[in-house]
Amino acid sequence: MSDIVRVKGLHVTFSTFNGPVQAVRDVSLRLAAGEILGIVGESGCGKSVTVQAMMGLWPTAITTVEAAEHTVLGHDCRSFTESDWRTLRGTDIAMVFQDPMTALNPIVTIGKQLEEVIRLRQKRRRSDQKGAMTEGIAEEVIHLLRQVGIPEPERRRNQYPHELSGGMRQRVVIAMALAGKPKIILADEPTTALDVTTEAQILLLLQKLVREEGMGMIIISHNLRVIARLCDRVAVMYAGTIIEEGSIETVLTSPAHPYLQGLLSSLPESATDGRLTAIEGQPPDSYHMPTGCAFHPRCHKAMRICARITPTNSNVSDEYSKRERVQHVREHQQTRECPHQVSCWLYRPEVK
Amino acid sequence: MDYIWQTEGITKEFNTPGGIFSGKEKTVYALNGISLQQAPGETLGIVGESGCGKSTFGRVLMGLYAPTSGTLRVGNQLIDTETARKTLHHTFQMVFQDPYASLNPRMTVRQTLEEPLRRMGVKEATVRSERIRGILEQVGLRPSYSERYPHEFSGGQRQRVGIARALISNPSCIICDEPISALDVSIQVQIITLLERLQTDTNISYVFISHDLSMVRYLSHRIAVMYLGYVVEEGTTDELYNHPLHPYTQALIRLHQPIAPRMPIGPVPQGEVPSPLQKPKGCPFASRCPEKEERCMEAWPQLTGNDVHRVACWKR
Amino acid sequence: MYSKEDFLPLQPMRCDESAELITRPGPWQRLKANKLAVLGMIIVCIMIVAAIIGPWLSPYTYAQQNLLEANQGPSASHWFGTDTLGRDLYTRVLYGARISLAVGFVAAAINLVIGVVYGGVAGYLGGRVDRLMMSIVDILYGIPLLLYVILLMVVLSPGLTSIFIALGIAYWLTMARIVRSQIIKLKEEEYVLAARSMGASPMTVLFRHILPNCMGPIIITMTLAIPEAIFTEAFLSFIGLGVNAPMASWGVLAAEGINSMRSYPYQLLFPALAIGITMLGFTFFGDGLRSALDPKEGGTK
């Protein structure tokens, strides 16, 4: 299986009034078709910026995006212009954001908004897919609404966004994303604004759609529960870098980085009888990044070197990944390696 | 048993004014007969989804809203007049959800904390600043922070200031209205452990209002599950968590299982919370309940059971 | 490359308490740091001083005619030149400053007193009172200013008094609306709820928690109202509804200047400059004042 998104050494810098701010530092990511990648981290860790930079969503005037490699669906994106991006985003890449209200035009019915996306897709694909168009747009709208689980689509399509509940609106946004028949879906905190029962409904829907259509999906969330339910692979971000990456099984069952360990042990459901242990301190702000490993001021395992030099990635070979990967690969039809990587001095060979 | 407070059939309706053009007056039924009580030193968790009335109930306790009907008793005193409601702040204090909005941006921490002290009649400036010093240390902030403005703090620190403000007038119960939902995960736990420590130190009671069942479970001695302005189930934490009886509680608990890779999502209650503009005739959850029967649509099941566990469902 | 030392546990850093102490510049320092605001303040001060003592320093009076020296350009004896009747323009511009600034400050005072109180009461009480009070504002808004003035001229004689009364009727409406909408917004803020839940009285809530947080919009509206009032006066005088001859306001001077603009442009230039510079001064000063009074702006270093 080939990668549909591949980024190496991504740096994103904003120029602000107080000087340049490095929002994302040396991030490498890849996404295969049919795979769900989760990016998890606290607010301000750069998870949204990473994905938005990967999709060319930042104005170049105040932002510098640099990458050693940056390919999306086979295109080299490093020299992309804004119009190249727009072509790609409208069709092959679709996005689902946190707040469905801002993603929908409040004065146009949802049916009309869906039609617009479908027309746009047909226009763009006309050149390479002759004859595959001009099927009934109205039927497709109904089909899409039904696909995302909206009851009575014939009536609903004539409604305006404000007439729908939050969960329904998010379903409409997902339908709009699907209308372009995308190959990649980016979901940025898609369920954060929703209640738990609605959240679960939306997650079920996303999972079903991605599996059925064979799309790749990147889902950003601060909520480990969402990530655990949905993802095949997960990248944990802290202060602008990926500190740990691996399959969801390895990352959740044998976390390596002290930050992730702390995060997992601070979940109330994991404190069955004992007390919760909190990670002390707070994430650094991007104007005052600590030297060395960004987590060292909060880390209880910090060594002197952590404060001096930023650790590089190392592979962790834990028991779990050896034993169960084979079985796991069989179960989920994953045909490729999914190394468990962590950037922490504790796992560097030099330490031993 | 002596309770700090006790409510009996509290209801609250909000009328949206009908203007000249907007047509008829609408009524939102926010609370539909809430009967709860709390023992000293305990934490009562109130859990439910947005719009279930949990925050409204907190504000009724605080005296910010007058209930439409029903009674609130604090100790042995019946709170039934506006004058009586004005005294509720001696018993209750509140910690709000949004640490960015709940502090006056033009007042330093010292000014914010001095206000309740002044109202309590602490006249000497030295006594006040000594008390402020003590309370800041208690919530894990440096006393030197007292001259700072709210925007100079992070979200977690602001929430600590909010807790200090609630604590400084020595209430017997703090109503925490979603105190952690605006914070990052690692900061949430810091606040939770702080609340926990304060309770061990001062034997204060909390009403902990949240949509996050796992946090509620961790902190609470008793839990009340609310849905559409009704309490559908109430009991001690262990009993409620280990033997949930109401289908809605069961669904919530299923959705809050310990994290595991690829944990299954379903089954999920279908549909959505009905509009609070109409009072349902039967059980409020009937429209989404997988086990509903004829009688569920006919009449509302009363909250029945014993002191340990009460549920409002026809089938239990 | 790495020494053994490197892998020893990191000593927990001792936080330097003094480093945590912040010295925050007060509003005055922050105002001083803002160059435009200082410039605006200087302009406003110079205008006020000039308006008060300026006419005394001139050997002429505003009404003194000398037809022999009519339409002279700027010179050592007449700094700004003279007008068609040979009156000293410098004296007349400074005298006009008195009238224009007086109009400006009266407008600001009306704004502050009537506008803030009216809007504050309407917003804080809400409900039926609010609706009634705001309907009155809406009705007053609907009547054009010119109509008031013309009607007033019928009742009173044209002159400063009727201008003041006209401003008094019309100039607090915007302020009342802005204060009301601010208060309605702030009333629902959690910190106001928090103050109420701690048993604060309505007066404390209004004056300690709500009004201070409206200061920004209030100051902006006020500083914008001053130049606007000066401009209105100039406009009314310009079309002949303002102060009576031989009294001079900037508007009167500009109107006279227009008539002879082709041949003696300086007769228009000086009053126009005075109007323009004063308005800029108030705008800069007002903007600087607003950010200086807001603790959220300005560095914390």
From TrEMBL, chain C:
Cited InterPro entries: BP-dependent_transpt_permease (IPR050366), MetI-like (IPR000515), MetI-like_sf (IPR035906), OppC_N (IPR025966)
Chief localization: membrane
Record key words, sorted: Cell membrane, Membrane, Transmembrane, Transmembrane helix, Transport
Gene3D superfamilies on file: MetI-like (1.10.3720.10)
Compartments it resides in: Cell membrane
Taxonomic superkingdom: Bacteria
Transmembrane feature ranges: 36-57, 99-125, 132-154, 160-179, 217-243, 264-285
Membrane topology category: Multi-pass membrane protein
Residue ranges of domain ABC transmembrane type-1 in the record: 97-286
Keyword GTP-binding: no
Pfam families from the UniProt entry: BPD_transp_1, OppC_N
Record family assignment: Belongs to the binding-protein-dependent transport system permease family.
Cross-referenced PANTHER family: OLIGOPEPTIDE TRANSPORT SYSTEM PERMEASE PROTEIN APPC (PTHR43386), OLIGOPEPTIDE TRANSPORT SYSTEM PERMEASE PROTEIN OPPC (PTHR43386:SF22)
Name the record gives this protein: ABC transporter permease
